[in-house]
Design a protein that fits this description.
Chain lengths: ~425, ~150
Amino acid sequence: MTKSIVTTQNREPDLDEIIARYPDIPPLIITKIDVQRRGVHYTERALQIMDDAKHQRRSAALFGARDGKVTPVPESLVFRDGTTVLTDPTPVEGNPYHVDVIDGLLVITDQGKVIEEVEYWPVPDYFTKQTSAGTPMKFVVTARPQRLEISPSSYCHFWNNDKGCKYCDIVNYFKQEKSELGVPAKLNFTDITETIGEALKQPGRFSTICMTAGSDTRGAEPFDNEVDYYVNLLQAIGKNFTTRKFPSQLISTALTEKQLRRLYEETGLMSYTSDIEVLNEKLFNWICPGKAEWIGYKEWQQRLIRAVDIFGRGNVNTGIVGGVELAQPHGFGSEDEALQRTLEEAEYLASYGVSTVLMVWVVRPKSFFSDQKNASLDYYVRLARGLQGLRLKYDLSMDFDDYRRCGNHADSDLLRLV
Amino acid sequence: MSNSWNEELKTILTTPGTVALLATINGDGTPHAAVMEFVSLAENGTLEYLELLESSHSYRNLNASLWFSKTVAILISNPDGNRYLITGKPVKISISGSTFEERYVWIREQRGDVDLAAVCIIEIIDVVEETFAVRFAQQEADRPFYTHLDRIAR
């Protein structure tokens, strides 16, 4: 009897219970969070209806999947409200949602119960083409349903002295992709110009371009090499546009004002993101030792704030790996404390015009934190609601990183209501 | 909903000069109305509405209606005064994929350099004829107390 009571008390509320608990948060968005939190397993039936002429298979990516494999399964899912769900294959023993075909419809299920109808991501036309140098274009620029994505280098120099972020598998996964898929180590600018040009031939397919890569500490001043590369990259992309500026987002290391001015003035870049990853100095130093060594928590915040003067209010944000603040042994002891402390720091940034967005922490097998567990669904819903609440309080728009132009942040999906 | 209205709705929606109005409410109950320039009846009996403005109140409210299972109202009126009031439920919003891209190309052929925010699918729950002559005849028959006496005086 006692044992049964303990089990009930420790049981996490399920999806239906959380939906009932938060009537102001759309059930589809809560479902998205949980699918991101738990991952998916594709049944044979679901894989059989995958059509290469219509659907996108998993392509080159910065980070690995929860199953530790590079497998040609569907890239990911779209809900019936157009919401993009970024999730990845997860071993069945990890209790993922199942993607299945029931009564002729592609659906996600949980313990056999149909949760939602879904679609696979559409494959862009350029994915079957090659650049003039013979490089498959799908290795040069990847795609989300409305976004072009360029990861010019999958190497992060913080890993040189074993100071990569503890939740991250970027370098280990890059080595796996390079050997198993033949993904090039570094992109060349002609390939990029040609691939973007080809992608733009598909009307209505894309609404933004996002660039992100590992940090490069080298240069006359730290990270100058990274900036040089992005300037050249953005100029190569810009050759395809009639306007000087084009909808775009750079996710990079926190750069100095001088470096940011170069990016803004010499390229068509319109927005700037620098992921602080965890909103607490002590945890930042523990979880992101490379970022702490080269820049530091307080300076990272100040660089984000100074970026608002250059890119404008509503065009600068930072990402956090939601739930990593609970990693043990040094993380917060409770979800209530983690939420309060995280939102306090996010509010400080918001008061200076910097938005914070949430990425659900995916525990990756090739990362240092491979044996940890992410947070509860209840926590992620409260975090998403809190972050969106700060945008409302400080009247912060964030068109460059919303449901259409990104799709990875449940909190910014809520911008569709305002 | 039964398909009995489909042919009439299809006819009226394709009649030149027909106007369709979309009425929605936002999260705090504020009402909003907008002209639906591009709305059609699909083969499966749903309405397909092309939303051109991503920043519009209608789009936000349609989205909220889908998210929280709320209904919307659509009033259709043709130049002859025939009117239908539709109660509908947004069930799908496409912002990518083949259907979205087809409509994107089509709308730009129709309207020039415009953008397309979404293809919104609205399931029809109910249709009521609101043509004045029909409604007035109904009222005369069903609600005899709604008559001014002078109209029936000797």
